[in-house]
């Protein structure tokens, strides 16, 4: 019976040691302080010109560079983004052949 009890004690001790080793690591306090220390961005005024900015590989026109920055976009031009013209006519239709007599 003593061997069985010693086996349980070894198992419990090994589990506790694994828990202590796994939970030990660098503190996240520095990271949290940096996140809290960043001041919130001030209000944006739309008195500025429209800008073209890229977000996620796509171009968008924003009312101002401040609004683009708040949305996480990178300004690429101080003008509005160019608009692509739509194709006229849509799909091409096949020409009708005259009926044979």
The number of E-state strands comes to 3
Series of H and E elements: HHEEHE
Rounded to the nearest angstrom, the radius of gyration is 33 Å
Q: Regions with pLDDT < 50 over 5+ consecutive residues?
A: none
Portion in strands: 5-15%
Helix content: 25-40%
Number of helices: 3
Largest sheet: 3 strands, antiparallel
- Spatial strand arrangement across the major sheet: 2-1-3
Report the average pLDDT across residues.
77
Report, as a whole number of angstroms, the end-to-end distance.
107 Å
Find the structural class using helix and strand composition.
alpha+beta
Shape: elongated
Entry summary:
With 101 residues, this protein is of the alpha+beta class. The protein has 3 helices and 3 strands.
Structure description:
A three-stranded antiparallel β-sheet has the order 2-1-3. β1 and β2 form a beta hairpin. It is built from three helices and three strands, in the order ααββαβ. The protein starts with a helix and ends in a 24-residue tail after the last strand. The protein is an alpha+beta fold. It is 38% helix and 14% strand. The mean pLDDT is 77. It is elongated. The protein has a domain at 44-83.
Which terms would index this structure?
101 residues, 14% strand, alpha+beta, 3-stranded antiparallel beta sheet, elongated, 38% helix, 3 strands, 3 helices
């Amino acid at each position: 019976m003593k061997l069985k009890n010693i086996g349980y004690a070894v198992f419990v001790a090994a589990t506790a040691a694994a828990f202590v080793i796994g939970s030990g690591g660098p503190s996240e306090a520095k990271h949290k302080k940096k996140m809290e220390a960043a001041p919130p961005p001030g209000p944006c005024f739309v008195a500025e010109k429209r800008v073209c900015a890229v977000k996620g590989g796509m171009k968008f026109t924003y009312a101002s560079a401040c609004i683009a920055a708040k949305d996480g976009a990178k300004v690429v031009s101080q003008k509005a983004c160019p608009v692509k013209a739509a194709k006229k006519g849509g799909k091409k239709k096949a020409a009708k052949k005259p009926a044979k007599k």
